């Protein structure tokens, strides 16, 4: 069995969303049950990998990330189609949330990977299309030019200090990232925002229900993206002149999060060399370990006192990383 095979598990998220949106009814809640109900338990049951070797590069890994990218607009189209034929007795929140979980957990992760590929390549454009589907085109500029330069510093709006809740982080980081992107690439960011406004205007002209579900799924996806940003460097502050190292990024080695999120939890490896494809990322013993996998951390982060307690405990266990 190729070492790319476990990563196929991640395709279950967008595929379940697309298929159940076409089927309709309460089947549309399947992605919600999977991501928010079943996956946190699978994070625990699947255990963690302590192996430090990296996967061999291959076509399978590349095909998987591109399938994720292609399925993002497919999920959005299925959502709009479902609205066009009616959602029946099911609340419109159900298909909107399901689509948003797919475009966030699958699509934004793929977009992040693809937008690190060669600029204006087909892969890069696919990543840009995925970001358009969640109204976050400025992410490419801000992420590549601010976050990767200033990660774990106070000037980085995506890195959160000790004690800040995910709610407080969200209301700060989104406008600051947009402002940073505009400051860095004024023309590109202006064009991106105009494209998004045009898309929204077209959807509103088509029908307010289309506008509402599209914006709704985008907000869910944006929340997932910023939740991940929130936990990846929380409390791990480095000085203005301090060189970055693996201790400035939280890591999780839980198999289920790694396989379904294209090794996103091995975050230090990504920062130390941003162009490394996801299958070549490796664990670092210097990185503090999160209290749980990403699916578990989703629920933990919603309860700030619990989140703070567990994160401080994990930081202390890792040797007082980040000034804990």
Which key phrases capture this entry?
0% strand, 13 helices, globular, 324 residues, mainly alpha
What does this structure look like?
By secondary structure, the chain is mainly alpha-helical. It has one domain (5-323). The chain is built from 13 helices and no strands. It has helices at 12-23, 30-45, 59-85, 93-114, 122-132, 139-150, 166-184, 186-206, 208-232, 255-260, 267-272, 294-301, 304-317. Helix 1 (12-23) runs parallel beside helix 3. It is globular, with a radius of gyration of 19 Å. The N and C termini lie far apart (42 Å). The relative contact order is 0.14.
Give me the secondary-structure topology.
Blueprint lengths: L11 H12 L6 H16 L13 H27 L7 H22 L7 H11 L6 H12 L15 H19 L1 H21 L1 H25 L22 H6 L6 H6 L21 H8 L2 H14 L7
Give the strand content: under 5%
* Residues in helices, as a percent range: 55-70%
Rounded to the nearest angstrom, the radius of gyration is 19 Å
Biggest pleated sheet: none
- Number of distinct helices: 13
Instruction: Summarize the helix and strand pattern as letters.
Output: HHHHHHHHHHHHH
How many domains make up the coordinates?
1
Name the overall outline.
globular
Question: Uncertain runs with pLDDT below 50, 5 residues or more?
Answer: none
What's the rounded overall pLDDT mean? 93
Structural class: mainly alpha
Per DSSP E runs of 2 or more residues, the count of β-strands stands at 0
N-to-C CA distance: 42 Å
């Amino acid at each position: 069995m190729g070492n790319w095979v476990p990563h196929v598990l991640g395709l279950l998220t967008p595929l379940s969303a697309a298929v159940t949106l076409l089927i309709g009814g309460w089947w549309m809640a399947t992605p919600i049950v999977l991501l928010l109900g079943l996956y946190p338990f699978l994070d625990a049951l699947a255990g963690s990998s302590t192996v430090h070797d990296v996967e061999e590069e291959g076509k399978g890994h590349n095909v998987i990330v591109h399938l994720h990218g292609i399925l993002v607009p497919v999920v959005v189209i299925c959502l709009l189609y479902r609205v066009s034929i009616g959602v029946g007795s099911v609340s419109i929140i159900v298909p909107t949330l399901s689509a948003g979980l797919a475009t966030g957990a699958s699509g934004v992760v793929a977009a992040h990977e693809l937008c690190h590929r060669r600029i204006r390549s087909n892969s890069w454009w696919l990543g840009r299309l995925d970001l358009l589907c969640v109204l976050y085109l400025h992410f490419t500029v801000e992420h590549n030019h601010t976050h990767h330069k200033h990660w774990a510093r106070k000037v980085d709006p995506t890195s959160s200090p000790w004690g800040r809740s995910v709610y407080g982080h969200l209301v700060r980081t989104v406008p600051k990232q947009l402002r940073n992107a505009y400051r860095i690439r004024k023309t590109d960011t202006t064009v991106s925002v105009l494209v998004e406004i045009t898309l929204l205007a077209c959807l509103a002209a088509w029908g307010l229900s289309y506008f509402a579900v599209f914006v709704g799924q985008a907000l869910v996806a944006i929340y997932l993206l910023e939740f991940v940003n929130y936990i990846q460097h929380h409390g791990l502050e480095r000085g203005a002149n301090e060189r970055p190292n693996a201790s400035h990024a939280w890591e999780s080695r839980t198999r289920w999060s790694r396989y379904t999120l294209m090794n996103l939890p091995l975050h230090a490896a990504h920062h130390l060399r941003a162009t490394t494809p996801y299958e070549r990322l490796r664990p670092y013993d210097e990185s503090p370990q999160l209290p749980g996998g990403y699916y578990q951390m989703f629920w933990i982060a919603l309860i700030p006192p619990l989140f703070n307690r567990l994160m401080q405990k994990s930081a202390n266990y890792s040797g007082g990383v980040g000034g804990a």
